[in-house]
Design a protein that fits this description.
Blueprint: E1 5-6, E2 19-20, E3 25-32, E4 42-47, E5 53-56, E6 58-62, E7 66-73, E8 79-89, E9 92-99, E10 103-106, E11 112-117, E12 132-135, E13 155-156, E14 178-179, H1 184-189, H2 191-196, E15 201-204, E16 208-210, E17 218-224, H3 231-243, E18 247-252, E19 289-291, E20 295-296, H4 313-320, H5 325-331, E21 336-339, H6 347-358, E22 365-368, E23 378-379, E24 382-383, E25 394-395, H7 398-408, H8 413-426, H9 429-432, E26 436-438, H10 447-453, H11 461-466, H12 471-490, E27 494-498, H13 524-537, H14 542-545, E28 547-553, E29 557-564, E30 569-576, E31 582-585, E32 598-601, E33 603-605, E34 608-611, E35 615-620
């Protein structure tokens, strides 16, 4: 059967994925001779809010079965474009639209997306090919140092290994006011450990002063939380991390503040005149009151988290202005920001934030929390422009996480490939190279729990607290986690390890996914496996910028290559996520596609490469993949 169009095939679309503004691309369709088209096909392309463009295609090749028609298109504006094709056949107009993810067919269907980004859009080099390690600061490592000015109303755990508090108080309120005492100097003590994992960047959940242990209710943007240490301690952490070759990314929470803050001061903790205290407060204009002072807009209805008007001139200047919050923390050594709930930050504010970050250097990074495809996201009725070059560098890549977990748990392999390739097609290449690829985060269950017993959706906190993994469940979860990590480390983007995942730390949803790192109780075999993945990842440029191609897949095994053609280097990854031994024969269709230059994982037994259950093979197919 003749394929009419395929956006993933270079013979139909000469350049895969997103285009730079001003970059030319050739589009081609194959029209079967039996359709008897009267006129050449037309490519119809447009951006939302702009008029359609009609590009007449020209005949470029022909045989007994079909005629090839092509057209060159050079976009002159950045943004999300959509396209389809139309042709008159036997005096009837037919449409060629998208079926599935990438194939064009006659009849009803969707439109193809073409992302066009600014021609000067680049992303920081330091993250490419690296490894991120996410730390929830209160729960990673406690130095034991006594800190000054710690508020009296905090409850300190004496046992590092006990569960966080999860029950509501007598008023039915979950206070989040219990702490374990993790701090900056504790992180400094573990930098050698992080370096041994291959970590090149630490992403810290919020560090600013706040009065709940998650610290997403900021009390003072210009001061570290006293339990973590001083601003000077943070500066020291950055200096020590940089000496170890590790960058530091902060969590920027700019859509709301805490009600218990110097800016709002609802509970009178501070000497400042907050917006709640007086309409004459310098911070009053930051907030929206509907019935002053007790009724105000707040984040998702939580009255402890009053929303700010991000485009208020005073607030924008405070965060993004010269010498503001962004400049201050970057001056202390931070290397960028991960932006919390970026969907709720308006475009103008994001534009200003990018200016603020990038005036400190092009190597400072901006990563947004987006749970869906960020290239075509619509939030609050507005089509966002996160990834065209004027706002974010990257996003938290939840679509990859969902696809990886789904595949390990039984998703059809072609569905998995399609989900991965769709993101790669829609995102600019500079963004793809620095995508934050997580399996667990502070907002979702630990991956090992999902792999062991499934989701905890609908389960009570009491159930989650009491539901410990049995030894058998843990082993199954661990095997599947290792398979998922292979995909996390070797697909495009940057793996982000949620602290403790590499040590076997389990936990369902908040707060159980925020238990303390199990120092002295680590799964050392899992740590060594993580180090192996990091070592392979460091081999050469293929895992920082190489293109991805899926070579074979079924319900147990998946084979893909990462190739860097410019540097003549490449590798093939073979993952066996099933319980059975699998063999790849050297004379098979799969193996003939590459050379067995060096086998790092997997056993070559005569003419077959053996991959044990729940394991993988990594094959270097170029002599240019030498150890760095």
């Amino acid at each position: 059967m003749i394929k009419i169009f395929d956006s993933w095939d270079s013979s139909y679309k000469s350049k895969f994925g997103a285009l730079k503004k001003g970059e030319s691309c050739r589009f081609s369709v194959r029209i079967p001779k039996e359709t008897k088209n009267d006129l050449p096909p037309i490519m119809v392309i447009f951006r939302v809010g702009f008029k359609e463009r009609f590009l007449i295609m020209e005949e470029t090749a022909s045989n007994d079965e079909y005629t090839v028609y092509s057209v060159e298109y050079t976009p002159t504006n950045a943004g999300i474009h959509y396209y389809y094709f139309t042709v008159v056949c036997s005096e009837k107009r037919e449409f060629i639209k998208r079926k599935g993810c990438n194939e064009g067919v006659f009849g009803d269907g969707g439109m193809f997306q073409l992302t066009v980004y600014e021609d000067d859009f680049t992303t920081p080099k330091f993250l490419k090919g690296g490894i991120i390690y996410q730390i929830f600061p209160d729960r990673f490592c406690k130095s034991g140092e006594v800190h000054d000015n710690v508020p009296f109303d905090r409850i300190m755990h004496e046992d590092w290994y006990e569960l966080p508090y999860y029950k509501p108080d007598e008023k039915g309120v979950i206070r989040n006011n219990d702490y374990f005492g993790g701090d900056f100097k504790g992180i400094i003590q573990k930098l050698d450990y992080l370096k041994s994992l291959g970590v090149t960047c630490i992403y810290l959940n919020p560090i600013f002063e706040a009065h709940e242990n998650h610290r997403y209710n900021t009390a003072n943007y210009l001061k570290t939380d006293p339990l973590l240490g001083s601003n000077e301690d943070f500066k020291m952490l950055c200096e020590k991390a940089h000496e170890a070759g590790i960058k530091i990314i902060l969590d920027g929470v700019f859509s709301h503040t805490g009600a218990d803050s110097i800016y709002f001061n609802k509970f009178g903790r501070y000497d400042s005149v907050g917006a709640y205290n007086s309409k004459e407060s310098p911070y009053y204009s930051w907030y929206t009151f509907t019935n002053y002072p007790d009724s105000y807009e707040c984040w998702w209805g939580f009255n402890t988290l009053p929303n700010v008007n991000e485009n208020n001139e005073s607030y924008t200047n405070y965060i993004c202005g010269e010498g503001g919050v962004i400049d201050y923390w970057l001056s202390l050594g931070a290397d960028g920001f991960r932006l919390d709930v970026v969907d709720e930050l308006p475009d103008e504010f994001l534009d200003n934030l990018r200016i603020a970050v990038k005036r400190n250097g092009p190597e400072k990074i901006i990563i947004g929390e987006v749970w869906e495809d960020a290239s075509n996201k619509i939030s609050y009725g507005i089509r966002r422009r996160y990834l065209i070059g004027s706002q974010l560098d990257s996003t938290m890549n939840y679509p990859f996480r969902d696809a990886i977990i789904g595949y390990i748990l039984g998703m059809d392999s072609k569905d998995f490939e399609n989900r991965i390739m769709t993101i790669l097609e829609n995102y600019p290449k500079p963004t793809i190279d620095v995508l934050m690829n997580s399996l667990s985060t502070h907002d979702v269950e630990r991956a090992i729990n999902i792999f062991a017993v499934g989701s905890c959706e609908g389960k009570t906190r009491d159930w989650q607290a009491q539901r410990a993994l049995s030894p058998e469940e843990y082993e199954l979860g661990k095997k599947r986690l290792k398979c998922a990590m292979v995909l996390q480390f070797f697909l495009p983007g940057v793996p982000c390890i949620y602290y403790g995942d590499e040590a076997g730390l389990d936990g369902f949803k908040d707060p159980f996914n925020r238990k303390c790192y199990p120092w002295g109780r680590e799964d050392k075999e899992l740590i060594e496996f993580t180090k192996l993945l990091a070592k392979i990842r460091r081999r050469c440029c293929i895992f920082s910028e190489g293109e991805l191609k899926f070579l074979f897949s079924d319900n147990e095994i998946i084979v893909f290559s990462r190739i860097c053609r410019e540097k003549n280097s490449g590798a093939v990854i073979i993952l066996n996520k099933g319980p059975n031994l699998r063999r790849i024969w050297r004379n098979s269709d799969i193996a003939r596609k590459f050379e067995f230059y060096e086998i790092i994982r997997g056993k070559l037994d005569g003419e077959a490469l053996e991959i044990p259950p729940y394991d993988f093979a990594a094959i270097m197919i170029s002599k240019n993949c030498e150890m760095n």
